Amino acid sequence: MTSTSELAALDRRTLVHPHTTIGAPAEPLILDRGEGALLWDTEGRQYIDGTCGLWQCPVGHGRTELADVAAEQIRRLEFYSSFGDYSNAPSIRLAERLLSLAPAGLERVFFTNGGSEGNETAIKLARLAFHHAGSPERTVVLARTGGYHGMGGASLAATGIEGLRAGFGPLLPDVEWLGKPHAIEHGPDAADVLVAELEERIAEIGAHRIAAFIGEPVLGVGGMVPPPDGYWPRVQEVLRRNGILLIVDEIVTAFGRTGHWFGSRHYGIEPDMIVTAKGITSGYVPMGAVLIGRRVLELADGATFLHGFTYNGHPVGAAVALANIDIIERENLLMRARVLGARLRERLDPLTELPHVREVRGVGLMLGIEFTDVPTASVQSGCRADGVVVRASGTSIVLSPPLVITEEQLDTLADVLCRHVAAAAS
């Protein structure tokens, strides 16, 4: 049996991990198994999972029923292309289920393998729809600073975190930036400021040139930042008045994270497209989906969408997604996200009394702690040494534990995190 030290050495020799420095491999934490909100490494050390990896696992780790569903579908039909007129029963049933849970007005589903592919799809479809409808000049995409939409050509171009775009050369043209939707940065009239900026930018560019606006209901990678009060209804009204499509990136916020099936429902958003992934299968199988609204379908009616990915509509992913959604519904995890989110927020709110804590914020069971001048990586590493996994994201520590986390585990997470946040400035 290969030892942990041998595995670590092999990892350093053979792998390039995302978000690491090439030529300077880090010492890996090699995880071996998981159950619920707990993880164990190959040395047998236990950790409370405060992030779901990349916030993708609402139903928790080690759900044998999802493994059984995947195995059964693999035995029946492991995969066949869904290009053209080929299809499979699990993907058809999943499309129907997603549309039944989504906000009104969404009528079709295009499957992907993940979030970046979903945003690539939505941006291309928005441009194609207007081109087909006789407005080929509508190519501009409006995006927000602080937004994260993926690592593809178009999705990275629309990602408003400058460091992530650095060094890759020219990306998708015609992306225009707007301010970060963060109340603490714009003051008590934040919604007024952001909406005024949006209207001014549309006037400068010309509404006739703008295809779509893309945004997250709550910024995820940008720090778990909820929008200012009243922001989304007013943004939506401006976009509709100017004929601009609204793409809502729900890769992080869907499937219970905000306490609703979709974050759009929490904020009363009626998107033209929703992009989702991650929680759709709880990460057990790579899967994503773009939910497409009536207006897009009308604009694109008759157009050939020469776009797709090999594993679109994967039957194993679709079967697991259906079972995953059943678990979320059966175990009432939407309500659990609201209750446990409020509990965790109550435990963390006293941190705002510390001089180096700028803000504690969140919606449902997604929370962020923003610092003034604290190296967040040290808080992250300190927590991990004490058996709690949290994530440093810029100047914030972000939290998104599995929705099945127990109250005792949640309290331990909060205790460990508070202790390291308090010690960070000493």
From TrEMBL:
GO terms for molecular function: transaminase activity. Gene3D superfamilies: Aspartate Aminotransferase, domain 1, Type I PLP-dependent aspartate aminotransferase-like (Major domain). Pfam families: Aminotran_3. InterPro entries: Aminotrans_3, Aminotrans_3_PPA_site, PyrdxlP-dep_Trfase, PyrdxlP-dep_Trfase_major, PyrdxlP-dep_Trfase_small. The keyword Magnesium does not apply. Keywords: Aminotransferase, Antibiotic biosynthesis, Pyridoxal phosphate, Transferase. This is Aspartate aminotransferase family protein.
